[in-house]
Amino acid sequence: MRAVVFTEPGPASVLEIVDRDLPPAGPGEVRVRIVLSAVNPTDTGTRSGRGVPDGIAPPRVPNQDGAGVVDAVGDGVTGLEPGDHVWVWDAAYGRADGTAQEYVVLPRRQVVQMNKEVPFAVGAAVGIPALTAHRCLTVAADGPSRLTPDALKGRTVLVAGGAGAVGNAAIQLAKWAGATVLTTVSSKEKADLATAAGADAVINYRHEDVVARVRELSKTGPQIIVEVNVDNLRQDLTLVAPGGNIAIYVGGEVSIPAFQAAFKNVSLDFVLTYTTADEEKDGAVAAVAEAVDSGAFRVGEEAGLPILRFPLERVAAAHEAVERNVVGKVVVEVQQP
How far is CA 38 from CA 20, 124, 195, 292, in A? Predict the structure, then answer.
């Protein structure tokens, strides 16, 4: 089988396609024939040597997320059989083998069945973005631990960066859960995408006063803020409702105006989907799977998340596109469905 490998950290040019033996599915494992492999910023970070540390040294096959078809199941595996359509998560975290290869073997827990009418692009696009978004939307102590329809009914959510992959997922999942969703973007094109994702109101922070607009749109302020930029923290503390929560899912350095936060009894959480507790991750996977199968999570320009496709032979270009912060979801076409 063909597999993308890097033997040392570096630029996208370190990626090469090699031939490997077909891996067997051991007890409790599932072998998936990968159709689409998604590229996330943490995938390019791992390849470059600046990613999330997981103790695994090269050679490695990159990419955490993907979608495909069950090819074989090992002893003890239940609930899946060859031919099932599936999406996978965290394939390359703590392991040397990600989804940028024709077949990947994973523990049963990391292989999620999806309805056969769901496009593979949807399955490839969930993973890190949707699981991150789910945790951001449920990390508050007074909120639901798992999203379901109406779980956030009556709440207002502010999503910073609504045209990004996590922002798009947060908008779609929050709307599915019944929230009123506000979002910020930096351009008219991104505003169109955030609107397509389902946001109730879109604020272009380059041309509008975000604080004034949010106060106009929400009497109390948002109960939940999903934040992509730590530099926005002071603004978030001004906007967030008393007792609200701010969930930050990116790195960076930040000083916290503690009295301002304390005065409102605000909780501040930092989110990394890789290291969430098993119970939290399982709840997120179950909720996202339900949203996917119900048609509540969509992809494509009409859903605010353009799909940018690259053949396997151009996997380096796919990684470079993510490093350029291209708008949309980058996927690698590994095999035909």
Answer: 21, 6, 24, 16
Q: What is the pLDDT of residue 251?
A: 87
Sequence length of the chain is: 337
CA-to-CA separations, 265 to 124, 186, 210, 258, in angstroms, rounded: 38, 30, 22, 10
Element (H, E) at 78: none
pLDDT in tens, 61-80: 999 999 999 999 999 999 99
Domains of the chain: 2-126+303-333 (3.90.180.10), 129-274 (3.40.50.720)
- The pairs formed by 282-286 with CB atoms below 8 angstroms and a separation of 24 or more are 282/109, 283/134, 283/138, 283/145, 283/146, 284/130, 284/131, 284/134, 284/135, 284/138, 284/146, 285/89, 285/112, 285/131, 286/146
| Alpha helix (H) residue ranges in the chain | 41-48, 120-125, 127-138, 165-176, 188-197, 210-217, 233-239, 258-263, 278-293, 315-323
Q: DSSP readout, 95-139? A: SSB-SSBSEEEEEGGGEEE--TTS-HHHHHHSHHHHHHHHHHHH-
- Residue 271 and residue 327: Cα distance in Å, rounded? 22
Helix (H, G, I), strand (E, B) or coil at 186: coil
Task: Write down the residue that tokens 């899912």 correspond to.
Answer: 249
**H or E segment and range at residue 70:** strand 66-73
pLDDT tens digit string along 151-191?
Answer: 999 999 999 999 999 999 999 999 999 999 999 999 999 99
The encoded tokens of residue 220 equal 């109390």
